[in-house]
Amino acid sequence: MKPIRLIASSFVAVALALLSAPAASIAQGSEKISLIRDAEIENTIRVFAKPVLEAAGLEPGALSVHLVLDDRLNAFVAGGQRIFINTGLLRNAKDANGVIGVLAHETGHIAGGHLAQMHENLRNASAQSVIALVLGAVAAGVSGNPEALIAGATMGQSAATGSFLHYNRSMESQADQAALRYLEQTKQSARGLMDILNKLQSQEVLAAGRQDPYLRTHPLSRERLATVRTHVDQSSYSDVDPGDLLDYLQRRMRGKLNGYIDPPERTLTRYKADDTDIEARYARVHALEKLHRTDEAVVLMDILISEKPNDAFFHETKGYVLWRAGRIRESLDPYRRSVELSNGLPLLRFNLAQALLELEGPDTAREAVDQLTQATQFEQHMPRGWRLLATGYGRLDEFGAAAYALAEEAMLLHNRDGVKRNVAKALELLPPGSPMHSRALDIQYLLEGLDKPG
Questions:
Q1: Measuring CA to CA, which residue among 38, 47, 29, 46 is closest to residue 67?
Q2: Cα angle: 383, vertex 384, 386; to 5 degrees
Q3: Is 295 exposed, middle or buried (0-12, 13-18, 19+ CB in 10 A)?
Q4: Do 297 and 288 touch, CB atoms closer than 8 A?
Q5: Alpha carbon distance 190, 439 (integer Å)
Q6: Residue 363 and residue 358: Cα distance in Å, rounded?
Q7: CA separation (Å) from 49 to 45, 226, 251?
Q8: DSSP letters along 235-253, please?
Q9: What CA–CA distance (Å, rounded) separates 436 from 429?
Q10: Cα separation of 75 and 59, whole Å?
């Protein structure tokens, strides 16, 4: 079985799965954006965002983080508390304050209701943009082609930079004011936000095609920059550093992204073997893995684990390195430990289940099904997860349950024929009144409603 992940902590391509339109149409005629999943980095962004969300009176637990594989500076919000953030911004921010400042600004847009104010613009937006951003929202599913990070995991660039995501200068000013207020309330520096804005200002003389997309959707003005600079000059917290924890998380995130995105030779040249900083060591792990220098990567991960034995993501990374090298059985213990230490993060459960299903035998199949059953309760919109669950049930000769899982996958992949075929099989084989049978009936009723004229 082929892998579903391409980097530790579930870096995987996201398929935009919509029942109403083919996913391929989303990217037609436009530049493609690739979305990735990574439990560790998503968790870091949530840690960064939590104080400003609370200061804004928003629920941090409702935040949905989407990582855009793009080296340009950009971040935007869409569909409620859903933040899209480019890997380029995460890699190029000087410190955690830069990322937090941008998150505070985007939180200002959410709290200010700016998305609702822009809904009228949807009347003039392309169908692809509406599907990708508003109706699609991002199904957070795994690509059907697990070997390709980008294949099938795209949406139009217009979804991020189209007219309906273009804030006016009044909205930008309001979001700035809100961001500065949140940062002040949480005793954090706005200097990072100022640095990002200064960097963007230097691009205003460039042609639009060469500008970072953030500049095109978040128009700058001298007044905006002056407001932020004045705040930095006057705030008592402007020289407050992010703190050891946030600084550590930022360097760790940057190392992981650099090791993943950059060619391994460049990474090993940039980060020397005697550099003991977490950014350097984490980047080197991923570079060594890509070069198939597995033993060296494992030794480095063992050192990191010895320093932080209760870090779930370090154990997951070790499991990933072993798994990528084909050392499946060796990967199981660190994968299991990562699930245990993370209190069962769904993406880490998927990692473990994937490895288990690459081994033969009913015991590993049952363990995989148990992991996938729990994971899909929280990550319900991952087509590949349902496919893996179907595989596990099939190994156990539970064909009704397998058909149900395939029906869920087909729903996410807008494959009506597949839904009808597998729902019929599930209803035939599953015990009436069982949870899966009831859900299969729900899917059948939904399809019947969609098929009715008018």
A1: 38
A2: 70
A3: exposed
A4: yes
A5: 49
A6: 12
A7: 6, 25, 17
A8: -TTTT----HHHHHHHHHH
A9: 11
A10: 20
Amino acid at 374: Q
The pLDDT tens digits for 386-398 are 999 999 999 999 9
- Which of 244, 80, 102, 116 minimizes the C-alpha distance to 182? 102
> What number of other Cβ atoms are within 10 A of residue 144's Cβ?
18
Per-residue H/E/C for 78-99: CCCCEEEEEHHHHHHCCCHHHH
E strand map for 102-224: 141-142, 154-156
Walk along the chain (454 residues) and give the pLDDT tens digit of each residue.
Answer: 333 333 333 343 332 222 222 233 233 334 566 888 999 999 999 999 999 999 999 999 999 898 999 998 888 887 678 898 999 999 999 999 999 999 999 999 899 876 655 554 543 443 334 334 433 333 333 333 322 222 223 334 444 444 444 556 677 888 899 999 999 999 999 999 999 888 877 554 333 444 444 444 455 557 788 899 999 999 999 999 999 999 999 999 999 999 999 999 999 999 999 999 999 999 999 999 999 999 999 999 999 999 999 999 999 999 999 999 999 999 999 999 999 999 999 999 999 999 999 999 999 999 999 999 999 999 998 898 999 999 999 999 999 999 999 999 999 998 999 999 999 999 999 999 999 999 999 999 988 877 766 5
208, 219 contact by CB (below 8 A): no
381's tokens? 């919109």
pTM above 0.70, yes or no: yes
Contact criterion met (CB below 8 Å) for 183 and 236 = no
Contact 227, 170 (CB under 8 A): no
Residue 429 near residue 402, CB atoms below 8 Å: no
Domains (range + CATH), the chain: 12-241 (3.30.2010.10)
pLDDT in tens, 327-379: 999 999 999 999 999 999 999 999 999 999 999 999 999 999 999 999 999 99
Buried b / exposed e over 8-35, threshold 16 CB at 10 Å, is bbbbbbbbbbbbebebeebbeebeebbb
Distance CA 347, CA 375 (A): 7
Q: Any idea how long the chain is?
A: 454
Q: Please compute, for residue 271, the number of CA atoms within 13 A of its CA located in the half-sphere on the CB side.
A: 24
Q: Which residues contact 309 (CB under 8 A, 6 or more apart)?
A: none
CA distance 280 to 228: 33
236 is written with which tokens? 């008592």
